[in-house]
Amino acid sequence: MRSQSPRLLAATLLAVLTATSLQTAGAAAAADYERVLNGTFDSGAADPWWSGAGVTNRVTGGELCAAVTGGTTNPWDALIGQNGVPFETGQSYTFSFDARATTAQPITAAAGESVSPYRGIASQQFALSTAKQRFTFTFTSTLDFPDAGNGQVAFQLGGQAADNTICVDNVSVVGGVKPPGGVNPNPTKKVQVDLVGYVPGLPKRATLVSTATTPQTWTLKNSAGTAVATGQSTPKGADATSGDSVHQIDFSSFDTAGTGYTLSVGEDSSFPFDISADPIKRLRYDSLAFFYHQRSGTPIEAQYVGDEYSRPAGHINVAPNQGDDNVPCRADLACGYTLDVRGGWYDAGDHGKYVVNGGIAAWQLLNSYERATRVGDASAFRDGTLAIPEKTNGVPDLLDEARWEVDFLLKMQAPDGMAHHKIHDANWTALPTRPELDDQPRRLSATSTAATLNLAAVAAQASRLWKGIDATYSATLLTAARKAYTAAKANPAKIADPNDGTGGGAYSDSTVSDEFYWAASELYATTGDNTYRTDVTASPHYKAAGLTRAGFYWGGTAPLGDITLALAPNGLPAADVAAIKSAFATVADQHLTAMAGMGYAAPYDNSVDGYVWGSNSAVLNNAQVLALAHDFTGAAKYRDGVFETLHYVLGRNPLSTSYVAGYGDQAMRNAHHRFWANQNDPTLPIAPAGSLSGGPNSALQDPVAQRLLAGCPQQKCWVDDIGAYSVNEVAVNWNSALAWVSGWAAEKSGTSAPKPDCEVGFTAGRWNDGLSAQVKLTNTGTTAWTSWKLGFAFPGTQKVTAGWSATWSQTGRDVTATSMPWNGQVRPGQTVHIGFNGSGTGTDPTAFTINGKACKIA
């Protein structure tokens, strides 16, 4: 993530660029608009300058230095350049630059067209020496290329027998009369809807862009174009975040399932959409499929992803890879060892693997499963539900996918118990670069307290979930978690270097009290140890003190600990757990109040920093807060807020765009990614279905966004361009948010929250250090049970010592009771009575499942 990599032109440029005549007399009155981006290379990055075959770009000492392989015939056989440069017909431009060469040689500076037929505008040859010189020439454009068009400037460096290095700096093309920027090339609608669908029985709202101050008549049409509903819009006025004047359309009263509906006002019509729960149920699995696509160290097989997305394993020490099996620390660290860090997920569009990003992403997948087992329906994630190699191993597939990253996190643990912050290439690679073709050396960055606590938290969480699946693996995880937590306590302020951003993002985090709270919460929920309890209750983050509308992310993880303490049984006072749950409802109410005043409703606080890098992940993480508020209270308003959020992400936004690839008629395609790079190389695929774009970023932190989006309103600061990495990259910790929310929404799809098909009554008599419990199981569904398995967790120190009418077992606090041969058949409306004697103290369990589904408590 946050990669700053050069953009590679897939096609070769033809000699026509050198054949064009030099125009020296330009039109008068040209303005001094700079047309080239990042011409000074002061940021240390080359982007958006690309390099052609046989050329490698590196920014060194503030210059872009191109290492050119010798033996080429023509000047245009070796190229560096920049695409998307705007030119206007008849306008004058001055092309200037500094340049030098290790060995003196001629080069050609050219302007022209980047795609067939490769028309030229102007070119001129210059003789380079070993000393830096300034070169300038002026021309008049004979072609017209708008922003994001096919205009290009390039340097032709070939035609030399020997290898050479050419360095350029202060590259500038000044001229034209139209100011660049302010353009998003995607068409927008005036009637904005969720491009995918609305779930029957839930609110259905759209946004009309209109300056009218009176209600407007809307019409809902089916796929045949027949009007099926009509009504009046509600004017809301100017919406500062989008820059639009808007009305709200509410067509919730229409609830007939179908496909191809459109909503229209006058002559303006929306993109088509469905009324169906099916799309969100597909998205639950497509969003999880993203993680298999991102796996490192294993082939991505066609039987799971199709031929288009299959590829060989990356970074397994097969040339040209240098491999992840024996990775040293960065040279300046001199750690004295190497680590085998094969596996894990590539973090984003580059080939880096980061513990703090992978940590929250793995946690979010694991929490999705744990939440489903505690208060939802875990059957949606059972073995065989995902298209992954482990789909028949008897383990829930969601846990299998998370384990791919958890195992990598374990490998990042240093001998002293600390965890290395990240592992990635020594330098940024070009777009595109398939993982198996990455020839860069791989390096471990220093260990950090934040990374170590991520490891401790996720390993403890995973240990809890694997305890009843693989006791040996669970014990291994817990040992690693304890070791990491101890190491972090001994090194409480080892902060990742904020300047370690070459070849991978820095991800420095100067405040780690939140990570300490999170890790202590996970360890306490898993072990019940008083040491961890003390750290939890003494933390300034205790009882959701840090939960606000800003939500959580890789650098702010305290709410993750709150979620675990609210869901997983533990020995905390019931009032404290209730306070945590109440905080989620309080913040959720704040989101709903703010969303009610928005033209395009999304749970996002833009009051301080505007829309930031990865804003869509923040929106979806806040939707998780809304979802949990619904889990904790049952209030329908929070459920509806989650679906409103998904409508924003899937198209009800001012760009009429679904930020999820493969979902909607105008969906993100050109993610910043080195393999899903169809925009640069037509032989490569677009982003696969279920991949989430980072979303609007009003800071415009990459050259493509700066060129195209100058002056954009906050929610419109986005473009579907592979080079726009600050708005259109993908990342594991963004897709994990989409996976959590879409999984929750799929479970809740329908006219209301799913009605439980089971009811459990629990009564217990107690004495000093014991209890005797009677448990009543009732089938409230419409289908007979052929067998049943009851699950619950003790909140205290209780242990089952003897039971009857079931096979009883207990692991930690988790208890299961499985039917006997004579009472497994339970028809609808029938009840089974079971019970047990136990020791220990604590309150009654608060959640029960039968056959993995949450039950009503009698």
Please specify the SSE layout and strand pairing:
Layout: H1 16-19, E1 50-51, E2 55-60, E3 63-68, E4 79-83, E5 92-101, E6 105-113, E7 120-128, E8 133-140, E9 151-156, E10 164-175, E11 191-192, E12 197-198, E13 205-209, E14 217-221, E15 227-232, E16 234-239, E17 244-250, E18 258-265, E19 268-269, E20 273-275, H2 278-293, H3 302-305, E21 327-328, E22 338-339, E23 353-354, H4 355-375, H5 397-411, E24 419-420, E25 422-425, E26 442-444, E27 447-448, H6 449-466, H7 471-490, H8 513-527, H9 530-538, H10 558-567, H11 574-596, H12 615-633, H13 636-649, H14 703-708, H15 725-728, H16 732-748, E28 758-767, E29 770-779, E30 789-793, E31 799-804, E32 807-811, E33 814-818, E34 831-839, E35 848-850, E36 853-854, E37 856-857
Parallel strand pairs: 12-20, 28-37
Antiparallel strand pairs: 1-4, 2-3, 3-10, 4-9, 5-8, 5-10, 6-7, 6-9, 11-13, 13-17, 14-15, 14-18, 16-17, 18-19, 18-20, 21-22, 23-25, 24-27, 25-26, 28-29, 29-34, 30-33, 30-35, 31-34, 32-33, 35-36
Helix pairs in contact: 2-16, 4-5, 4-6, 4-16, 5-6, 6-7, 6-8, 7-8, 8-9, 8-10, 10-11, 11-12, 12-13, 12-16, 13-16
Tell me what the structure shows:
The chain has 858 residues and is of the alpha+beta class. It has 16 helices and 37 strands. The strands form 9 sheets. Strands 12, 14, 15, 18, 19 and 20 form a 6-stranded mixed beta sheet that branches. A 5-stranded antiparallel beta sheet has the order 1-4-9-6-7. A hairpin with a 2-residue loop joins β18 and β19 (268-269). The chain is globular, with a radius of gyration of 29 Å.
